[in-house]
Write a structure and sequence with these properties.
It is built from eleven helices and 16 strands. The protein is an alpha+beta fold.
Length: 434
């Protein structure tokens, strides 16, 4: 295992943090790693992939387990109307003191057949930080709250960043009566998770109510591993535009319907998907463009399809470039619809602007890593995170730890244990600095 210490610092590398017990300066590494493994068993498939799609049964199981862990640690847990799980230290006998509030966390839901760390690591590290502070009776200048945001991935219900958008007060940007990919309403699933679709505005935290938001996450890319550095100080988060394209054609018998005059939505979809790829690969209008989900109806081998639905995910660090890419794609979709004599509609568009992290928080993260003897690198995030939504109401900071092989959203997603504990130590120290 590589040495995580700052090569230009004084003295030798600190000993492994994975076995240290919790103190005001460091977390209980063994407890954190144990929790990560236990949560990884929730929704794990036969091939090792994790399936905790937002608002699914396994997602609810993980949320219930999180609340139980928090209660056993002597912490308070509530669920807001958006389905977000919020954890904080008990108020005691008197009123809760009037302190600036700092929010830390991430999400527990996964993509289909995903990894054990994306999202869950940030939540469990946040719980570990809060438990460490509470157990040591550390008097902080801020009130720390841990959040597990609901449905960050949008893997089942195509409304990614659901929980953070509700918390940030962006209710009007969400569908009034959301449904999943098969048309089942979110209202019932949200209620099972403890939320209330008719009362979302009660879960909003107004601007000024938070002093800061911190999110610890695996990098999901190769930079830190290639540099041999255990900590990333994130300086910006990519913007994202996501929507569903629906193509309506005319069904027919595969053997008796002449090729001439067919209105085949799947053929049109193939041209449309190529147009999506062309945005990034040839026209360079955005950094990446992806179609990751496709549904054909009736999906029969001897029937011309009636309807095709597919997702579109566009990402770039420039909001203007994202808007240009979306406009160009809109024109391309209209063109292929005319050629195929089909009808195309776009549903559920969600736009998340690129954001910069806060200078003060970046410096606090960097100073914390340095004090712990950990090398760090400043880098952008190519993935979207709840942090960029929370940026609508407060300053944000993000900490990365290396991803082995630079991969994520796959069953073999992994990070070295020492790096996982190091990231939590930096998170704790950063909170203390605030």
């Amino acid at each position: 295992m590589r040495n995580p210490a700052v090569t230009s610092g004084d003295g030798a590398a600190p000993p492994s943090r994975a076995s240290r017990t919790g103190t005001p300066g460091r977390v209980d590494g063994a407890r954190l790693l144990d929790r990560i493994e236990r949560f990884a068993a929730i929704g794990r498939g036969k091939d090792g992939g994790i399936n905790r799609l937002g608002f699914s049964e396994t997602d609810r199981e993980a949320r219930t387990c999180l609340a139980r862990e928090a209660r056993h640690a002597g912490l308070e847990t509530v669920i807001d109307a958006g389905g977000n799980v919020l954890i904080r230290c008990p108020a005691g006998n008197g009123d809760r003191p009037s302190k600036p509030r700092v929010l830390i966390g991430s999400h527990l839901d996964t993509v289909a057949n995903g990894g054990k760390l994306d999202g869950a690591y940030g939540v469990l590290a946040g719980l570990e930080v809060l438990e460490t502070l509470n157990a040591s009776a550390t008097d902080t200048s801020c009130e720390v709250t841990v959040v597990a945001f609901a449905n960050e991935e949008g893997a089942l219900f195509p409304q990614p960043f659901w929980g953070s958008m509700v918390l940030a007060g962006r209710v009007d940007d969400l569908p009034s009566d959301p449904v999943d990919y098969s048309g089942k309403p979110l209202r019932d699933a949200l209620a099972l998770a403890g939320g209330d679709l008719s009362d979302l505005r009660s879960a909003a935290w107004p601007p000024g109510s938070l002093a800061a938001y911190l999110e610890l996450h695996v990098e999901q890319g190769p930079v830190l591993e290639r540099l041999g550095k255990p900590i990333g100080v994130v300086d910006s988060i990519t913007g994202r535009t996501q929507f569903t394209v629906v193509i309506h054609g005319e069904p027919g018998h595969a053997g008796t319907t002449p090729m001439e005059g067919r209105r085949d939505p799947l053929i049109t979809a193939s041209h449309a998907i190529i147009a999506v790829q062309r945005l990034a690969r040839e026209e360079e209008l955005c950094r990446v463009a992806t179609v990751g989900w496709l549904e054909v109806s009736p999906n029969s081998s001897n029937t011309i399809p009636e309807t095709v639905r597919f997702s579109v995910d566009l990402r770039d660090s420039s909001a203007k470039r994202l808007a240009a890419a979306e406009a160009t794609l809109s024109g391309a979709l209209a063109s292929v619809a005319n050629r195929g004599d089909v009808r195309i509609s776009v549903e559920g568009t969600i736009r998340t602007d690129p954001v910069q992290t806060d200078d003060r928080l970046r410096e606090a993260i960097a100073a914390s890593a340095k004090d712990l003897g950990l090398a760090y690198e400043r880098l952008p995030s190519g993935a979207g995170h709840d942090a960029q939504v929370v940026a609508n109401i407060t300053s944000i900071g993000m900490i990365f730890v290396p991803s082995i092989g630079g991969v994520s959203h796959v069953p073999w997603e992994n990070t070295a244990p020492d790096d996982l504990v190091a990231g939590a130590d930096v998170l704790l120290q950063t909170v203390l600095r605030l």
